[in-house]
């Protein structure tokens, strides 16, 4: 990996020297099919780049990662590839004012989801290709100047097997056996794309009359592997797509600029999706092989709209360098929820945002590696790691706060001016702030310094003083910050007061909005109100903060959390209680008890699924070791009780069935799962489809009930790519030292497995019930991670370093071993050290929470 890095300084120097007029890329992908034995599989890539140099005679370089280069020509002069190409860069000397570079290379197909990924479908043997580049993997497919500010138009042509179809960013057609694609607008290298293979393809179209009277027509397409075609609900994908296009045209006043709009659902994808203009790629798990809940469809809709927002925020206007990654990701994350709530059937999307997305941000913002939303990105490895909860979810939360601060219309008008002024260009923070200051009249640099240029999350706690008559004499909000990040920010918040109504429900009876500034802010508007049973700071989720409670409010939640009638208020309380648990202020067993008593009454399915995940994490990481067995039994009993009580055939029933499988451990629990698989056990209305069968088999494999033969038989029943991933995970989950040794070797000592199977193997290897089996690998982990980081791709390196960290060996000894590695490897790659530091912090947090749980303090 080190030789593949690119620093910000190098990128700035190259951008000052070069400007790119255009690319022509010719790929020959016919080598993707056919038996080649043990020969490494490569494809021919011929790139022509026309570019200018501001300092004739200067030296620069082009980027390319390829096994071999056949020829290099600069301005008609043939260069010796052995002299100018070192495996990652092509040296370009004595540049002219105007230049033409032609590179003929043999590039490698990928098995890690980076570059040109090649997938063979085990179901029918068909081969599928797709590209994935962000932040810097287009250089694995063609020669390039790999940085976001060197935009250019692209022309692609592709030779492919006769029975294949090929797609790229522009519209394409096949003539004389070659697919040729229309030239793109000026775009960055990392959002170019090629998808090729015998994909199942469905079409539709979007039409709209623009304000100037012209008609806009956008051809729509959606594709997936042939094996997934029976499950592909393309009508719903197109419906969300059209609703999103309507919303963004209504609000952005800038027509969609990239012609067609294809959406490809592809196998073994590392990300949720990627915003390639005209050819968005998604992980194929968004095509549902079995019954899923409304939350899954909402998640897919959010991702579709997130990527669509990128067509403007990121593709039309792009950050200069990865420091300002938030200029695309934060906006897309915010606009995904904003448009989904206002334009689709998922009108409760802000509830999911408050409960799910923001929990990701809160975790990331409390790690030692937290950073401002506008980050300091020194190189590409930094950039890869900064696709995190800060850049996405905190940035989106901050933008939600910004809308409350400047007003909705001022925010949208700022966006409209930003697009028109910077179309097809690159921007920095100041470019956006200047238009927002124009449209709002607010001091945007001051807001930016507080919210975008500092790290850390504030805590807001209410203080309530009552007068002799039992009314509020004074209500204040106290703001605190961590010592490491002491910034106290201005917050626009709503404070809600709740009491029980006649029907016993906790209802809001008073609300005030206030600007919280400094350490303590008095909210005068609420003086004189009746005494509340619950005070909810940040009601309606206007700002980004950790909510705390006064003692009376916490007592109310312990007794009556399920009685809160408003779904968003309830979700905010659940999130706050989870933060208290993570901060070792609420015992983990108390949080588990709250879930057992009140989760069954949760109406929002996305919140319920989050509660299940949190309860499982509380038991695995934050509960005192001596209570884990008891806690596991209570959760399994509660899950089975709710499963049997749920409405037959409902999404709640399905969610409780999956949670029961996740926490089942006793002989009785496992017997129920066996019965459900065999059909001898019945739960009225529960359909045990193929995906649920694998969910039930996983705990059976983990506890040694389902062995290799049973899992092989299940794969024969579901001999698909999805089935193979499930089988690999279950095989690695079996409780055997030999199994763990084999799983470890297949991930750490070999690079044969694809990215998807590496991920599945790691998931099976680390089982909470198998701490003793995993213990011998704690020491080995620290012996191998630097080698793995150096030898493997950054994606696989991240998967291994994160996934195999010995977090289940939750003892001070593991903490000491981590500290010893960090002390002895101060010169290790900063990105590698960051991953280890983050894992160390999670472990230290778990130990503090376990101490809290053991002491019963909360």
General description of the model:
The chain has 858 residues and is α+β, with helices and mostly antiparallel strands. An 8-stranded mixed β-sheet has the order 5-4-7-2-1-10-13-12. Strands 15-16-17-19-18 form a 5-stranded mixed β-sheet, with helices on one face. α3 crosses α5 and α19 (690-702) runs parallel beside α21. A hairpin with a 5-residue loop joins β15 and β16 (215-224). The radius of gyration is 28 Å and the shape is globular.
What's the main sheet like? 8 strands, mixed
Amount of helix:
40-55%
Poorly predicted residue ranges = none
DSSP summary: helix tally:
28
Task: Describe the oligomeric state of these chains in a short phrase.
Answer: single chain
User: How would you classify the helix and strand content by structural class?
Assistant: alpha+beta
Proportion of beta-strand residues: 15-25%
User: How many E strands?
Assistant: 28
Q: What radius of gyration results from the CA coordinates?
A: 28 Å
Please state the average pLDDT score. 96
| Span of the ends, CA to CA | 46 Å
| Shape assignment | globular
| Strand order of the biggest β-sheet | 5-4-7-2-1-10-13-12
SSE order and pairing:
Elements: H1 8-17, E1 18-28, E2 42-53, E3 60-63, E4 68-74, E5 77-79, H2 81-84, E6 89-92, E7 98-108, E8 115-120, E9 127-132, E10 154-159, E11 165-168, E12 172-175, E13 178-181, E14 194-197, E15 200-209, E16 215-224, H3 234-252, E17 261-266, E18 273-274, E19 279-283, H4 294-310, E20 318-319, H5 326-343, H6 349-365, H7 380-385, H8 390-406, H9 408-422, E21 426-427, H10 429-440, H11 444-451, E22 459-466, E23 472-480, E24 491-500, E25 506-516, E26 520-522, E27 534-537, E28 546-547, H12 551-560, H13 567-582, H14 588-598, H15 605-622, H16 628-645, H17 651-663, H18 667-678, H19 690-702, H20 708-717, H21 721-733, H22 737-748, H23 755-765, H24 771-774, H25 777-791, H26 794-803, H27 812-824, H28 830-855
Helix pairs in contact: 3-4, 3-5, 4-5, 5-8, 6-8, 6-13, 8-9, 9-10, 13-15, 14-15, 15-17, 16-17, 17-19, 18-19, 19-21, 20-21, 21-23, 22-23, 23-26, 25-26, 26-28, 27-28
């Amino acid at each position: 990996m080190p030789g593949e890095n690119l620093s910000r300084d190098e990128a700035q120097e190259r951008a000052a020297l070069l400007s790119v007029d255009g690319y022509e890329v010719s790929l020959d992908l016919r080598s993707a099919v056919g038996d080649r034995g043990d020969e490494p599989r490569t494809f021919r890539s011929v790139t022509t780049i026309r570019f200018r140099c501001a300092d004739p005679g200067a030296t620069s370089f082009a980027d390319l990662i390829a096994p071999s280069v056949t020829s290099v020509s600069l301005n008609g002069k043939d260069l010796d590839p052995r002299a100018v190409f070192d495996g990652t860069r092509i040296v370009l000397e004595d540049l002219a004012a105007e230049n033409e570079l032609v590179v003929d290379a043999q590039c490698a197909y990928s098995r890690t989801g980076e570059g040109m990924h090649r997938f063979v479908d085990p179901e029918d043997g068909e081969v599928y290709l797709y590209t994935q580049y962000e932040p810097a993997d287009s250089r694995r497919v063609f020669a390039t100047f790999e940085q976001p500010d060197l935009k250019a138009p692209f022309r692609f042509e592709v030779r492919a097997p006769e029975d294949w179809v090929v797609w790229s960013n522009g519209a394409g057609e096949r003539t004389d056996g070659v697919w040729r694609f229309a030239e793109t607008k000026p775009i960055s290298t990392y959002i170019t794309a090629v998808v090729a293979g015998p994909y199942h393809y469905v079409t539709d179209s979007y039409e709209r009359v623009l304000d100037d009277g012209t008609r806009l027509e956008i051809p729509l397409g959606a594709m997936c592997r042939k094996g997934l075609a029976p499950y592909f609900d393309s009508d719903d994908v197109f419906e969300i797509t059209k609703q999103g296009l309507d919303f963004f045209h209504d609000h952005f006043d800038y027509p969609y600029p990239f012609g067609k709009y294809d959406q490809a659902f592809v196998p073994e994808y590392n990300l949720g999706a990627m915003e390639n203009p005209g050819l968005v790629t998604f992980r194929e798990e968004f095509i549902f092989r079995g019954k899923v809940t409304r939350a899954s469809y909402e998640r897919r809709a959010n991702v579709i709209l997130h990527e669509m927002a990128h067509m403007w925020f990121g593709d039309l206007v792009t950050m200069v360098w990865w420091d300002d990654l938030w200029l695309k990701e934060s906006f897309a994350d915010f606009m995904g929820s904003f448009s989904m709530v206002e334009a689709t059937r998922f009108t409760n999307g802000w509830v999911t945002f408050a409960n799910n997305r923001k929990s990701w941000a809160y975790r990331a913002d409390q790690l030692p590696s937290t950073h401002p939303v506008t980050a300091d990105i020194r190189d590409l490895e930094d950039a890869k790691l900064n696709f995190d909860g800060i850049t996405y979810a905190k940035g989106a939360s901050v933008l939600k706060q910004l809308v409350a601060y400047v007003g909705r219309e001022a925010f949208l008008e700022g966006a409209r001016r930003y697009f028109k002024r910077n179309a097809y260009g690159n921007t920095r923070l100041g470019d956006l702030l200047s238009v927002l200051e124009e449209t709002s009249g607010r001091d945007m640099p001051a807001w930016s310094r507080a919210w975008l240029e500092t790290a850390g999350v504030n805590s807001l706690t209410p203080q309530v003083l009552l007068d002799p008559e039992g009314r509020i004499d004074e209500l204040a909000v106290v703001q605190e910050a961590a010592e490491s990040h002491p910034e106290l920010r201005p917050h626009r918040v709503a404070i809600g007061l709740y009491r029980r109504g006649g029907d016993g429900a906790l209802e809001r009876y008073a609300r005030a909005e206030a600007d919280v500034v400094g350490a303590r802010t008095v909210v005068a508007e609420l003086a004189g109100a009746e005494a509340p049973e619950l005070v909810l700071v940040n009601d309606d989720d206007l700002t980004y903060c950790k909510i705390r409670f006064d003692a009376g409010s916490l007592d109310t939640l312990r007794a009556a959390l399920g009685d809160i009638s408003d779904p968003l208020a309830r979700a905010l309380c659940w999130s706050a209680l989870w933060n208290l648990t993570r901060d070792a202020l609420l015992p983990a067993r108390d949080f588990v008890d709250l879930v057992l008593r009140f989760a069954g009454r949760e109406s929002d399915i996305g919140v319920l699924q989050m509660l299940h995940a949190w309860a499982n994490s509380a038991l695995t990481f934050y509960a005192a070791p001596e209570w884990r067995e008891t806690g596991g039994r209570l959760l399994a009993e509660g899950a089975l009780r709710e499963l049997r009580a749920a409405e037959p055939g409902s999404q709640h029933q399905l969610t409780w069935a999956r949670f029961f499988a996740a926490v089942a451990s006793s002989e009785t629990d496992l017997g129920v799962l066996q019965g459900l698989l065999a059909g001898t056990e019945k739960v009225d209305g529960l359909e045990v489809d193929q995906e649920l069968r694998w969910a039930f088999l996983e705990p059976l494999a983990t506890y040694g009930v389902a062995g290799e033969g049973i899992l092989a038989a299940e794969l024969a029943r579901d001999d698909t790519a999805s089935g193979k991933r499930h089988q690999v995970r279950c095989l690695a989950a079996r409780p055997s030292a030999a199994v763990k040794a084999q799983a470890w070797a297949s991930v750490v000592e070999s690079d044969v497995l694809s990215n998807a199977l590496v991920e599945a193997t790691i998931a099976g290897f680390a089982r909470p019930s198998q701490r003793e089996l995993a213990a011998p690998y704690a020491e080995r982990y620290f012996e191998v991670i630097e080698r793995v980081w150096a030898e493997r791709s950054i994606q696989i390196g991240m998967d291994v370093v994160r996934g195999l960290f010995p977090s289940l060996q939750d003892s001070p000894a593991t903490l000491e071993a981590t500290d010893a590695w960090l002390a002895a490897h101060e010169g290790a790659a900063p990105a590698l050290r960051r991953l280890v530091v983050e894992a160390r912090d999670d472990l230290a947090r778990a130990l503090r929470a376990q101490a809290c749980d053991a002491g019963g303090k909360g």
